[in-house]
Amino acid sequence: MTARRSRDGTLSSALLLVANVLVPAAILVFATGFFPYKPLLSGLASYDTVTEYGDPPAAPFDRLVFMVIDALRSDFVYTPDSGFQFTQSLIRDGAALPFTAHATSPTVTMPRLKAITTGSIPSFLDVVLNLDEGDESSSLASQDTWLAQMKAKGTGKLVMYGDDTWLKLFPGTFDRADGTTSFFVSDFTEVDNNVTRHIADELKGDDWNTMVLHYLGLDHIGHKGGPRSPHMVVKQREMDGIVRQIYTAIESEDHLSSTLFVVCGDHGMNDAGNHGASSPGETSPALVFMSPKLRSLKSNLQSPVPEDQSFQYYSTVEQSDLAPTLAALLGFPVPKNNLGALIPEFLPFWKKQDQIQLLMRNARQILDIVLAVFGEQILESDAITESRADYQELAHGWKDLADGYGKGMHGEGTSKLVASVTKWLQNAQNVLSSMASNYDMPRLFLGQAAAVTALVAAVIAAARCASGQAASFIPISGILVAYGVMMFASSYVEEEQHFWYWATTAWFAYLGVRRFRRGNTSALLQILSTTALLLATRIIRSWNQTGQKFAGEPDIVKIYLHTNPALLWCLIGATYFWVHQNLIYGLSGLPIWFSFSTATGLVLAAFTFKVAFTLEDAPELVTEFARRLLELNFSQGATLIARARAVFMGLALLTGITLFFMLTRRRISLGQNGPSTLLTLYTLLALTQSRATNIPLYLLFNLQHRLLSSPSSLATLSPTELSTTALLLQHAAFFASGGSNSIASVDLSSAYNGIASFDAAAVGVLTFVGNWAGSVWWALAGVSWLLACSSSLSGQQREDGRRWGLWKGHVAVLTVFVAGSVAAVMAACTVLRTHLFVWTVFSPMYLYCVAWSLGVHLVVNVGLGGVVYWLGVVEGGA
């Protein structure tokens, strides 16, 4: 029997290893097939390649100042509450022409800059590359852009100051540059001052023809405090002051008299201050063209304009329209890969014949893309096939335009041709923008095959680890099947939180009914325990409304905490007091003077850091009493970086002491084991990395944990059911804290705690902890349950290796769900790859699936959880 159990254990271990190696391999293979770069036309466009239109018309401008204000949502410029008073005066005066630029998803900086400069539709993979400060694979150095065209003109140098994403995209392009990191979101001022300090000198010089400025402070304010942060209008006024400085120089300096000044946002932001998805606020940045020459267009529009919840102000254009518009206004060919259309409002700069020429050149350039994909025969074929109908209609429409142009229309015919070409351009833009990506289907299928193989291996391993407990696998199997089906519906993906809330509630109700029927304890106690568990779960569900449809709906944070800061800080104080008591208890094996003073000092440092952080982040949430506490504290005057580092160093010190005691099989606590003390220390880290409004959630997590950890509860749960409970609570906690399947919900507000300069590894870890803090908490709580079960094993069972069998069974259950969910998400992305929402819903879902599989499962549940479980076993003397 022992030999057989040993063989089964070896086989199950091998299968688990195979499954957990195949999961990341499947993810990597699938990603390389799902996120490929689209083929592009090489080289620079030239007027010489298209000669039938004659010499290009004269351009009204010869110099460009292109100012990007990161996350400049349209209402930040155009509404009465805006700080852009000078800009609004230019709009009224006719010296500025305003638009709302539509930014397609993903609404993050790198892909948006690619769209702005090339006029094309970037790959969704750029949302990943956008997070890598050291990435250079996304370079546009060899692609045709308006920057390359301005450089090819040879009329001056190119200079750039601001977000160093431009330097990654255009290596070697700029003659003078000073880049700033785009991810240090704690910095509102220096990151912009480093840009502004160059402007005065550059405006005096005349050796440049293109100056790019990219300001980041407004975006950082959004990430930290949202669009209604008290810092927001102040920053808008600062940016408006820069606009005034540049425009005044254009008016007064002779060498700048033909300068076009463009101010735009690369994307907007949602109500939480984040971006990356496709909500109206995220996809609606402002776009303003400015120059004294624009007065000849006699626009003189109203400004400011009333608030619009759709964020659509004035005319709406595509961001890709910037490329052909700048080409016409500055006198260079339209970039080869452009899908944009010349903005019609600028056509009055030229006479009718020149207008037609500019539009026909734009149309011919887009036609070249169609011909490159489908060949010249598409112009010759009269039979329209279903798969190419849209493109063949474009080709036939082009032939009509070419015939009309060849007839040399005059008078009303000229106006009709202008209208016809404009309509063709808009139609072509719509057709080509929705063109499916060139998926690598063999890689997609290979990735799915690897995921399915991992699932099979995990299922076999789980069955061997939990022999005789087949019924306990029914719940986790049902959860996995329901989750897999849900991945094929975009609405369910967007609102995934409801699945976990209802599944967790149903699971707790089932456990309560089962305990009641078994009658292990008094009926009243069972009813009270289950009711308290369900009530805590209901409150957690209502803490933060997330997802897409209900993100702005009332929740506990909005209704009670934002409007009642005193209540918020009472709950925060209670949470830190609970941690303080748990920490003293967890260190009770040490001298009382050391345990009390260390615990008090660390918790006080963490609490005052949170007060100081919130005072910077959202001062309206800080009560006068909390401010006074901060003033009385011995650390008054300390920076946020110093405060955070003090907390991290204190946590590291106590974690090291706890690990030492566990490894030497000594008790650091008189009443609890080492893993419980580690959970308390992690709780303090989670509070440090969480938004102030989410801190009270951990009181509710603790209540749930205590109710589930009671001897009567643990006695009725099999190891598989314990793992199922931990899995449900990990996911529910993520969504309850404000997470969702949208890139925009990634919270960067605590990503730079204790960091003075950008460090990819440190920022990555802090970002992960900040967004999955609750999930990690429940992963460690699940380990404590397993250790409690293992401590109840008999001596013989421990010698038989049952303790490690418990851990393998836990990992097996979690691996079954992870492998199954990865396979389901891959299948959904493959089947729905031509779906309208593939880039706004399913692709972000895949990225979150990667984070859950690699970060939460492999790193936290298997890696960190395995270490803590091993330490608990060592401490227990097994």
UniProtKB/TrEMBL annotation:
Residues 436-872 form the GPI ethanolamine phosphate transferase 2 C-terminal domain. Keywords: Endoplasmic reticulum, Glycoprotein, GPI-anchor biosynthesis, Membrane, Transferase, Transmembrane, Transmembrane helix. This is GPI ethanolamine phosphate transferase 2. It is a multi-pass membrane protein. Pfam families: Phosphodiest, PIGO_PIGG. It is found in: Endoplasmic reticulum membrane. Belongs to the PIGG/PIGN/PIGO family. PIGG subfamily. The lineage of its organism: Eukaryota, Fungi, Dikarya, Ascomycota, Pezizomycotina. InterPro entries: Alkaline_phosphatase_core_sf, Phosphodiest/P_Trfase, PIG-G_N, PIGG/GPI7, PIGG/GPI7_C. GO terms for cellular component: endoplasmic reticulum membrane. It comes from Chaetomidium leptoderma. GO terms for molecular function: CP2 mannose-ethanolamine phosphotransferase activity. Pathway: Glycolipid biosynthesis; glycosylphosphatidylinositol-anchor biosynthesis. The chain crosses the membrane at residues 12-37, 444-463, 470-493, 499-516, 523-540, 560-579, 591-613, 640-663, 807-833, 845-871. The keyword Transmembrane helix applies. The keyword Endoplasmic reticulum applies. GO terms for biological process: GPI anchor biosynthetic process.
